[in-house]
Amino acid sequence: MQLRDVLPDWHIEWVEETGSTNHDLASAARDGASAPRALIADHQHAGRGRFDRCWQAPPGTSLAISVLVAPQVPIAQWSWGSMLAALAVREACTKAGAADVTLKWPNDVLAPDGKLCGILAERVQSQDSDLLVIGMGINTSMSAGQLPVPTATSLQLVGADPDPMPLVKNLLTEFNLLLERWNAGESLIGEYRAVCSSIGRRVRVLRSVGQPVEGMRAWEPM
In CATH, which of 3.40.50.300, 1.10.10.10, 3.20.20.140, 3.30.930.10 is domain 3-216? Predict the structure, then answer.
């Protein structure tokens, strides 16, 4: 089954390699591209994470997936977009066979052995409206020696199926369902909170400027 059969309203493109799927979709939005759409790359060589940190992986060992959407909720609530993506990634990884997958506020998807996925969202001004780009970088088939940092892991390392096609199909299908519920005004707080491992734990927040902040992570509804 093709992705377009599962999500007929989406424009979906899958490429072998690009610089950054987020950058490509943001540029497309500024040039008039419509939402919803998704761009998937087997490899990206100029990916960025939070605070503009470089995100790299050997070719063929990860997936870069970005979506362009037009949320029907106030812009002040758009930060929830990355949390929707995290829930969708968790569901897809669980269906692939990864056990005990949790979320770390605000943008990481974790297995017990380490980080499986990072997420980055950005607001984009298109020709006639504001849109949201959400990028997800999933470690699929990295070996232990290929991990960028000791705190990372991959689907293959945790015994899950790294096959990209069912992973992407399940991820985008779940994300689309969550997006529809979010746009309809349904609260997803309970679902996120149930799988967020950092609530109630002492955390240390590194900021782009200023000193780190430490404290107990409490839940703050959005």
Answer: 3.30.930.10
Domain ranges of the chain: 3-216
Pair 127, 30: CB distance under 8 Å = yes
pLDDT digits (tens, 9 = 90+) for 123-136: 999 888 999 999 99
Q: What does the pLDDT look like over 47-104, one tens digit per residue?
A: 555 545 555 678 889 999 999 999 999 999 999 999 999 999 999 999 999 999 999 9
| Nearest residue to 175 via CA among 97, 117, 217 | 117
Residue 65 sits at φ, ψ, to 5 deg, of -130, 120
In 3D space, the residue among 90, 173, 102 whose CA is nearest the CA of residue 138 turns out to be 90
Our measurement of the distance from residue 210's CA atom to the centroid of its chain's CA atoms, rounded to an integer in Å, reads 27
The answer, as to whether pTM is greater than 0.90, is no
Which positions ≥6 away from 172 have C-beta within 8 Å? 3, 6, 7, 10, 12, 38, 65, 67, 88
